[in-house]
Every structure is written in structure tokens, then in C-alpha cells.
Amino acid sequence: MLKKLQKTYHDFPRTFWVVVGTQFIDVIGNTLLFPFFALYVTQKFDVGMTQAGIILATNSMAGLVGSTIGGALADRYGRRGIILFGLVVSALSGLTLGFVNEFYLFYGLSVFVGLMGSASHPAHQAMVADLLPPEKRSEGFGILRVVANFAWIIGPTIGGFLASFNYLYLFLSDAVISVITALLVFRLLPETKPQPREKTETETFGKTLRGYGQGIGDRPFMAFIFASILMILVYQQMYSSLSVFLRDVHQVDPQFYGLIMSSSAVTVVLFQFSVSHFIKRYPPFLMMATATFFYMIGFTMYGFVATIPLFIVAMVIITIGEMVGMPTSNSLAAAFAPEDKRARYMAIFGFSWAVPSMVGPWAAGLVFDNYNPNYVWYISGLLCVIAILAFYFLHLRLGSREQFQAAKTE
Predict the structure, then answer these.
(1) Number of domains the chain is built from
(2) Would you call 402 exposed, middle or buried from its count of C-beta atoms within 10 A (0-12, 13-18, 19+)?
(3) pLDDT, block means (10 residues), the chain with 410 residues
(4) Residue 143 lies in a domain
(5) CATH code of the domain in which 169 resides
(6) 202 belongs to a structural domain
(7) Is residue 1 domain-resident?
(8) CA dist list (Å): 175 to 18, 32, 33, 88
């Protein structure tokens, strides 16, 4: 086991491991707060899940704008500066959110947080694609999943403990961790933006933004985005409506919810390396369909089971899909992208997360507040079926292209 870990370490460049380390620290801060955000909003301001869903939706809509601008800036000026900007804004704005006592101010500030804090997301993904050759990207994104989920073991557990005393401690902790991460990025992380192979005239920022037209006009890529949106509409319920569902329908307190989420993280830490090594042997679009199948089973279970052990079983099934789908989806997005438009393609790929964030919590809130809450999980199963068919269709149409074939095994 030790030799295998040593080999994995030496197979990837040092700068990649710096990215891994800084992300680990940052994700601890995010997971202290994010899983409990809907709980905080509904309790602090005495509103229903519909209002909380609207906040999450507008935050994501603003994030879509922010990531679009950030992707263009990362392709034009570089990745490192945009990442630093995002960390500093995250610290300041998150801290401010913790002290707001008026719902309308919290709402407005959350839009600002979404706009500014999301600017660095395409730069993060583009940096990993910059550092790794195509055959290593799936494993590289898998390693990032291991690290992020190891942070999920720590973050929600501590977050649940802090939330039982005062939710303000979550915002304070997240701000401090963001500042620490920014300092480490500033000292340790170099710029990774590829240099043009030929000297070209410096384009205006407006022309850089217009470069998004190539990605939006890439019909196979947009078909992939559509299928991913359907899948992630379901997946993101884990981080928005699931906590409220378990609290209100099954009386699960925040500490037990943290335990359920940590079971997902433990599964990733233990098995992601093996899964990443295994799935690269198979066509990536088929792996996306497989991941969505596991989501279908796991999320639908929440509409039928009623005990914490079975909630954990459902979460482990979902996590199997996550281990297959998350690194594969990032690798596929990078495979679609021309080198000089990598961050912009990654920003468009962010639509597959932003659109579900806008629609999912709001729609789930409407169901929660007006119908049987279990309907959320039945609808999730149906969406997964459609996504499975979409990914299989993409495999039939695109699977023969070189960049979408299984990696050659040694």
C-alpha cells in the first residue's frame, strides 16, 4: 500500500500536489458551513424551504455570471491571481454574512457572494488541466476528490458540533481558513497558464469574452452540459434539501446529518484511488451513465427508507456514483476544450452546476412546502433515467473520437 502511494505521488508533478494541499484546507472551511446553510437560513430568519431555495438559486445565478467573467480573465491573465481574488472575497463576504440579521440584507449579500466568489472556479479546474496530460487527468481529478472528501470527514463533523452552539462560529471559521489558504497560494503556487505557441496580437477583453461563442456553439459539448445538468439537479439535493428533509420529516438533528455526510467522505477516501484507476479503462460517457445509475438508486431510496442506518446506505450508494462520475466529468470537459480556451470551456461546464443550483433548491422547496416531501426523491429517480439515456446517446455519437476513448492501460 505504501509503495502504491509513493508511486502515485511521483507520477504527478509537485505543483499539482500544492494544488491538492491548498484545496484540502479550503474545502475544510467550505464544508464547515455549506451543508448547514439551508438549516441556518430557515432557522435564523424563520422562513420556509421555498425562501431558502430562492436564496440559493439567486446565489447560483450570480455565480454563473461571476464564473463566466472569471473564466475569461483566467484565460487572458492567468489562473493564480483569480484564485487569490476568490479566496479573499470568500473570507470577507462569508464573515459579513454571519453578522447580518435582516433577511433582505442577507439575500442581497448572498448574491454578491455568488458573483464574486465563483470567479475563481474555472481557474481552479483549468489549472489542473494545465498541469496534467490527458491520460492523467481523470486520476488527477480523482485525487482531488479524495482530498476534498477527506476534508468532508473533518468539516461537517466540526460544523455540526459548532452549529449546536452558534452558527456564527461556522462563518468565522470559514473566513479564517480562506485567509490561510490565500497565503499558501500566494507563497507556493506558480502560474500555470499555457503560453501561446506562436506570437499573436493581444486581444481585447471583449474579444476574450466573445471567445465563449466557440464553446456555446460546440453542439456535442453543449449536449454533454445538458446531460450533466440533469444528473447534477439530482446530486445537488444532497447539499440543499436533504438536510431539511431529514430534519423536518425524520427529525434527524445536525450532528447526525454530519455523520451521514461524513460516511460519504470516508467512502471516497478509502476507495477513490482504486475506482479512478479502474474507470479509466472504460469509455467515459458510459462511466457517466453508470454514475447516474447509482444516483438513481441512492436518491430514490430516501423516498422509501426511514432509519439512519439506511440513510447511510443510500449515501454510500450515491457516493459510488460520485466516485465514478465526478473525476470523469471534469476530464471530459477538459477533453472538449481547446488549450487556449480551457478556462472558458470550464466556465461553461460550470453551467452544469450553476443551473441546478438555481433551479433545484427552489423546485425542491416548492415540493416540500406544498406536497409530499418524498416526491422530491421520486422525481430525482426519473431525472436520472433521462440523464442515463442522454449519456448513452453521447457515447454512441462521440465515443469513437480519440479524446473520448478509454485510456490505454500499461
Answers:
(1) 1
(2) exposed
(3) 66 88 86 76 76 74 78 81 85 81 81 76 82 81 79 78 82 88 90 68 60 78 93 87 83 76 79 82 92 96 90 92 90 81 80 80 82 91 96 90 68
(4) yes
(5) 1.20.1250.20
(6) no
(7) no
(8) 21, 11, 10, 9
Q: Which domain holds residue 326?
A: 19-191+210-404
SS3 407: coil
Global pTM value: 0.71
CA distance 265 to 267: 5
Grid-cell match 487556449, residue found: 340
Q: Reduce the secondary structure of 243-279 to three states and give it as a string.
A: HHHHHHHHCCCHHHHHHHHHHHHHHHHHHHHHHHHHH
CA–CA gap between residue 122 and residue 312 (Å, rounded): 32
Are 345 and 333 in contact by the 8 Å Cβ rule? The answer is yes
Q: Are 119 and 86 in contact (CB under 8 A)?
A: yes
Residue type, position 57, single letter:
A
Helix extents (H) in 101-211: 103-117, 121-131, 134-163, 168-188, 205-210
Q: Does 282 map to a domain?
A: yes
Residue 48 has which C-alpha cell? 420556509
